[in-house]
Fold Ent-kaurene oxidase.
Amino acid sequence: MESLVAALPAGGAAAAAAAAVGGLLAAAALAGRAGAKNNSSNAPPGQSATVIPRSLVWLMLLQGPDRVLLPDPPGSFSAPLILGVAEDWRSNSFGVSHNRAHFLSVPGLPIVGNLLQLKEKKPHQTFTKWAEIYGPIYTIKTGASSVVVLNSTQVAKEAMIAKFSSISTRKLSKALSVLTRDKTMVATSDYGDFHKMVKRYVMTSMLGTSGQKQFRDTRNMMVDNMLNTFHTLLNDDPNAPLNFREVFKNELFRLSLIQALGEDVSSVYVEEFGKDISKEEIYQATVVDMMMCAIEVDWRDFFPYLSWVPNRTFETRLLTTEGRRTAVMRALINQQKKRIARGAARISYLDFLLAENTLTDEQLLMLVWEAVIEAADTTLVTTEWAMYEVAKHPGKQDRLYQEIQEVCGNDIVTEDHLPRLPYLNAVFHETLRRHSPVSLVPPRFVHENTNLAGYDVPAGTEMVINLYGCNMNKSDWEEPEEWKPERFLDGRFESADMYKTMAFGAGRRACAGSMQAMYISCTAIARFVQEFAWRLKEGDEDKADTIQLTTNRLYPLYVYLTPRGRE
Ligand code: HEM
């Protein structure tokens, strides 16, 4: 069951933050359902109901769930229900309204619902396939809970913007509740006073326009360092392919430490471990282990009526990982508090939060950790996919290089050039569309009755917004499987619009770090192409599989680089 459950969270953002907020939480969406009502009646009120014949019930049970399309969510498969399932259906519990055809449920099995169909660990892809059969909105069952899945940009925007006041609450799995210390983060907190306060903090000090200006030199240093490392590696062995991820990851983590803590920490003494740990170990404890642990979903999340059954393996792993993260973060913060006590204040998120003096120690720790994990993952995922596509499509790479030459000449590309590089902008957004780094929006919870796309959605419904599905929807995007930056240059989109795709979410809970992601990713892509011609390692053309909460490439990107002008 654990592998089955682990399948679900492949999408999510901080999760652990709920996945990093975007991706991680998505996992939770599917996992933490305690309290979710199983109200499957999405039919507009007052519509007549149809009885599902007993023969159809048995047909489904005998033939297998995929063969028979049931026109209506079959309600909760709780243990008592299973025993009397046919009776329930016969007795009209699961009525069908006239226009339910647009709001179907995906047939599943008793008790487990659709869990087994989500085994392949990429729920965003499975949801997208189901959208082709059942339409852009449908319900699924994950154990005892019903979840509405949205796969259309129009309806997703309606949920995230127009109906925000009714759908603003987050829904977390047990793992995410523990890892996020019960929603003590910007990304995982419910919309309310705490959320508004900490979002203001993170925007003012770090992620808003003036916050970003303060870290511009750090971003420049980061890209300079990457280019220098590429040159060094090439000099060492001109014929060996380079591991792009290794170089980018190290520099991005350096930036996230400087922004969050004020220092590029190389090691720290952790009291609980009784020793110094290296930067690599800090990364492991604060980013990698958390991303992996966030997708470890407790099977009891799907069956709240079995919550009394012990699950010690899960609990031990969760508490150990969480404890290590907390110990390391506490050590890092204490190290910086000593710096501040010496009178060496710096521009950093930690310095800012300490000066505000409104947070408890636990809140401070969680927010600083959130800044580390969020900065260190999704931008890497996006830029790695972009460089994969650029290296795979030499014609498009040439077009990008030409644009850079025309606009920048002999000057190094800077953030000031970005508004004048429309093809670069298109490369960035097309990568976000095709590879949606946060494939499932951190799960939302309908906390008051509302109406979506004409259907009543009752309070208690869980909602998963499949950004990957929205961005691959054939009615919105021509040939959605293709990576075609040109699609953003046909006049339909504003160059400055950060929400051309749904990759950053939308509305009041939209990504707080989109500007940072854009600055880093676009400047890096442009400078990489300005400096080198990129070619994939032989045989890597179709290595496009993904892993983890955010849509990390399964295999790190390996490339051959040729310095421009020396071809
Ligand atoms: C390409 C990179 C990124 C992508 C695709 C991305 C995507 C997302 C998504 C989909 C959400 C959830 C939106 C929702 O619930 O409606 C989100 C939220 C958030 N992201 Fe990002 N993100 C990226 C980079 C970053 C970075 C670099 C940071 C910070 C350093 C960051 C910080 C946040 C925060 C704080 C939230 C929570 C906002 C809120 O709940 O009000 N993100 N992100």
